[in-house]
Design brief:
The protein is α+β, with helices and mostly antiparallel strands. It is built from 11 helices and 27 strands. The strands form 6 sheets. The chain has a 9-stranded mixed β-sheet with strand order 2-3-10-4-9-8-7-6-5. The chain has a 5-stranded antiparallel β-sheet with strand order 25-24-23-26-27, sandwiched between helices. Helix 3 packs across helix 11.
Length: about 450
């Protein structure tokens, strides 16, 4: 091991490192003097004892946006500490000591092990590791050199995969959507055979003896263990027909067709939630423009919200600030034969709502969504912001009960805090992962895959 004895080395805000003892020849690190402790992306972290000493085994994807390359590591544990992340969450992590090579120098550093999937960089170099050795130029990158493509190929030419996994399909429309990519990656990371099925390219053979699903080009989709449905609203009817076919073939559907259909009908879902004893904002529904004024008054008058029944992701939602404006919007929608809901406006919420992510009857993560400037509704697709939020026990119970009322194994439950207490806005059967993973740092995609494993009784290494 070479110890630095000369002047401090100037590094950029990101540099390539070499962790020799862990068999990681190249990993890009975020150099962050604001962080005290260094951390390394690790998953499947398992402690064990050898010769009376505590060790830990773990796996690392050393390259950003690449889960095909897998390195299996073992190291002695030097400590276990409670660390506060940049998102404000605290986590108890194993700490190891390992040699770090940066440029021409090598020295031992302490590193905490944590899943950094949502953080981008696979490694963070904190100030304890830099003390007395490095100075940071925040405007520079890779001052100590880039890693050539041929070096990558030499070091990371092959990938390790865990064998004997499940065969799981993500049934959706866009393979490049963040949520779909993350589910595919998380499944592969846990050793499963993942495939993406574009709903439009699937077609069905109805046969009492041998029902089949065919894919573009005539391929018969067979031997699937499970499907993860992520059906866009415009494809609800056909997508749910496809799910019913898979269920006929004995394939597990994480959310079944009946639950998705029920959740997609805003009026039906709100009625079901009320039947389950859950509170919602006062809501009106009518078919005739002649009833417009009474419809407005039944929700307390303006300001009020007008929603298209078939709208999603904040589209087809209008705030009417006066009764006259409300009447105009309602009549305009009705002249197009559009089905609408009229709902009271919760002024005290101040453009904020809460998204609870529920998996198998448990709230696994929650965020507060804040509307973009000039908007009245929190929506991450229209410039809104997401941040960590601590939900109350009551809000957790409401979210879990709402998912159960819809019979959804995976659901995004949207709540709003009002002077009357928490109110349910809606239930989403295909909740997005990007906003909640980024805000919380929680690997939601892996939890979804784990839910499938539990339902099918699959265990890693079995």
């Amino acid at each position: 091991m070479v110890q630095q004895s000369g002047p401090k080395v100037i590094v950029g805000n990101q540099e390539w490192c070499h962790l020799t003892a862990l068999n990681i020849p190249a990993i890009k690190a975020r150099v962050d003097s604001g962080a005290k402790t260094s951390s390394l992306h690790a998953f499947n972290i398992k402690p064990y004892t050898t010769d009376g000493e505590l060790w830990v085994s773990f796996e690392v994807h050393p390259l950003q946006s690449n889960r095909k390359v897998l390195v299996k590591c073992d190291a002695p544990v030097v400590d276990r500490r409670t660390v506060r992340s940049s998102t404000g969450e605290t986590e108890k992590r194993y700490v190891i000591r390992t040699p770090l090579t940066l440029g021409n120098d090598t020295w031992d550093i302490e590193v905490t092990l944590t899943n950094r999937d949502s953080m981008g960089y696979r490694m963070l170099l904190g100030r304890e590791a830099m003390s007395g050795r490095l100075l940071v130029d925040p405007d520079a990158s890779f001052r100590l050199g880039e890693v050539a493509v041929d070096v990558f190929r030499q070091h990371y030419d092959t990938a390790e995969f865990t064998q004997g996994g499940l065969k799981i399909a993500v049934v959706a429309s866009n393979p490049e959507l963040y949520s779909n990519e993350r589910l595919m990656e998380a499944g592969r990371e846990r050793g499963h055979d993942m495939m993406f099925l574009n709903i439009r390219h699937c077609y069905i053979k109805l046969d009492a003896e041998k029902p089949e699903v065919h894919y573009r080009g005539g391929t018969i989709i067979s031997d699937l263990d499970a499907v993860i449905p992520r059906i866009r609203p415009s494809m609800t009817h056909y997508g749910c027909s496809l799910l019913r076919q898979f269920m006929t073939m004995g394939v597990l559907c994480l959310n079944d067709s009946e639950a998705i259909t029920k959740s997609r009908d805003k009026l039906y879902s709100l009625q079901a939630l009320l039947d389950s004893g859950l509170n919602i904002p006062i809501t009106g529904f009518a078919n005739s423009p002649l009833d417009t004024q009474d419809l407005i008054s039944m929700v307390g008058g303006a300001p009020l919200i007008v929603k298209l029944l078939e709208g999603t992701q904040g589209r087809g939602v209008v705030l009417a600030e006066t009764n006259k404006a409300a009447e105009s919007v309602i009549n305009a929608f009705k002249s197009l034969n559009a089905n609408i809901l009229v709902q009271e406006f919760i002024k005290e919420a101040k453009g904020k709502d809460i998204r609870c992510f529920v998996i198998d009857g448990k709230v696994v993560a929650a965020i507060e969504r804040e509307a973009a400037p000039g908007e009245f509704r929190a929506n991450l697709h229209q410039g809104g912001k997401a941040s960590l939020v601590k939900v109350t026990a009551q809000e957790r119970r409401i979210a879990v009960k709402a998912a159960k009322a819809m019979n959804l194994s995976v659901a995004g439950i949207d709540l709003i805090r009002s002077s009357k207490g928490p109110l349910l806005l809606e239930v989403n059967s295909s909740p997005g992962l990007e906003g909640i993973e980024s805000a919380t740092g929680i690997d939601i995609a892996a939890m979804v895959i784990t839910a499938i494993e539990k339902k099918l009784g699959w265990k890693r290494g079995a």
